[in-house]
Amino acid sequence: MSIPSDRRYSDTHEWFKIDGSTVTIGITKFAVDELTDITYVQMHDVGTSIEQGGTIGEVESVKATSDIYSAVAGEISEVNGALDEDPATLNTDPYEAGWLIKLNAGDTSALDDLMDAAAYEAKYGAS
Questions:
Q1: What is the spatial distance between Cα 44 and Cα 96, in angstroms, rounded to a whole number?
Q2: Could you give the CA distance from residue 39 to residue 56 in angstroms, rounded to a whole number?
Q3: Which of 24, 25, 98, 112 could disulfide-link 94, Cβ–Cβ 3.0 to 4.6 Å?
Q4: Total-model pTM
């Protein structure tokens, strides 16, 4: 699975895809592989305000529970409810069907400081 080049990546293995003022957030394949089999996903509710560096929710696997962070401030506008029914979607499709939330962000400039796909792959050697 190749790393999509249309988003930015954090050192905590979240990805951020910008579409105007909406930022879709998910976790990378590297994170999924580290967690192993994901069994539960719990995101904050629509309407929740998130600070830059704040958590948007957590992902639980047979191995660990991990907080998921946002590199940009905003308000949650949508949560991927399909993951409630089938959290294992993250194991197979973390970059598309496995997105976690959509955030209305007034200012996305903080994402400019994150890695592009090539830098993320070079640093972590992972897809």
A1: 20
A2: 17
A3: 98
A4: 0.95
The answer to whether 71 touches 53, Cβ cutoff 8 Å, is yes
The HSE-up count of residue 98 (CA atoms within 13 Å, CB side) is 22
Distance CA 16, CA 114 (A): 9
> Could you read off the pLDDT of 72-103 as tens digits, one per residue?
999 999 999 999 999 999 999 999 999 999 99
Place of tokens 């592989």: 33
3-state DSSP helix/strand/coil percent for the chain, to nearest 5? Answer: 20, 35, 45
* CA distance readout (Å), 68 to 13, 20, 56, 59, 122: 9, 22, 6, 7, 22
CB 41 within 8 A of CB 27: no
Q: Which residues pair with 69 in a beta bridge?
A: 55
φ, ψ dihedrals at 73, nearest 5°: -85, 155
